[in-house]
Amino acid sequence: MLVPIDFEFTNKVRELVSTITPLDIFDIIIVAAILYRMYQMIQDTRAITLVKGLMVIAILTIICGWLNLHVMSWLLQKSSDWLLIALPILFQPELRRALEHLGQGQFLRQSASLLDQKEADSVVDEIVKTAKKLSQTKTGALMVLEREMKLNDISVTGIHIDGIISSEFLLNVFIVNTPLHDGAAIIRGNRLISAACVLPLTENHELSTELGTRHRAAIGLSEQCDALIVVVSEETGTISVAENGRMVRHLDEQTLAAKIRPAFTQKDDDNLFGNVFAKWRGKK
């Protein structure tokens, strides 16, 4: 049995396609790049759960309108109005991060702190080796691995160093009862740029009482930027990593290496539009 062809629909599609200009395609690509970058910034963060909640409210609003549930539709509409006011507060860390990336010219561009595979593996090995030795001696330490967002405002609170990363160098930084021991070391690419830096403490009161000042400082900074913060506990020697306001504890050498490697390398498909943009700029 042959299905009749809807020529009217086909003609409408052709008419619609014929109205698309190269400028429209360029416009769509820009919007797609921005949306993709925004998704990258909020994935694996607490903001993604808020986005899912907003999507549920939007779907419920559509369903209630379709079923003519007037009271529910009114209630959801009022809730949506209040949410529009609350969004800047709920997404304050993410909005701040996006604006800082935009101001630093890094919204679509690949981070300049990333290394090639060989250099990245070398730096990761040195950091893992350092964390292991500090853990064995129960020497407290904070190592901040800078990613796309620059931490110049944090680095100026400490002592400027700018030295090539090595395990021996980092171990000397965290020798107990020395000026550089207290505070955090800021690592950018394969260089230690500053030590004895002061980090903001988290205001999350739901954290375990087992977490000391180092851990709370690591979580506090991770809530405000995209850095990875490696923490070695002075009491237990436990190695932890803070990211996006959350902390993963009791890491061994393999899991620590896997956790921090993305701070120095990037998959080809992780920043597709940024790579295309960077290549286009390079040809100019």
Structure description:
The protein is an alpha+beta fold and 284 residues long. The chain folds into two domains: 7-103, no CATH class; 117-263, DNA integrity scanning protein, DisA, N-terminal domain (YojJ-like (1, 3-Layer(aba) Sandwich). Helix content is 52%, strand content 13%. The chain contains eleven helices and seven strands. The chain has helices spanning 7-18, 22-42, 47-66, 70-90, 92-103, 117-136, 152-155, 167-173, 213-224, 253-260, 272-283; strands spanning 141-145, 159-164, 184-188, 191-197, 228-232, 239-243, 246-248. The chain has a seven-stranded mixed β-sheet, sandwiched between helices. A hairpin with a 6-residue loop joins strand 5 and strand 6. The longest helix is centred in the first third of the chain and has 21 residues, at 22-42. The protein is elongated.
Oligomer: single chain
| Number of domain units | 2
Helix content: 40-55%
Helix-strand topology string: HHHHHHEHEHEEHEEEHH
Second-tier CATH architecture of the largest domain? 3-Layer(aba) Sandwich
The number of strands is 7
What is the alpha-carbon Rg in Å? 24 Å
The class by helix and strand makeup works out as alpha+beta
Morphology call: elongated
> How many angstroms separate the termini?
58 Å
CATH first level of the largest domain: which class? Alpha Beta
Assigned CATH superfamily of the largest domain: DNA integrity scanning protein, DisA, N-terminal domain
Number of helices: 11
Question: What strand order characterises the main sheet?
Answer: 2-4-3-1-5-6-7
Mean pLDDT: 80
CATH topology of the largest domain: YojJ-like (1
Report the sheet-strand fraction. 5-15%
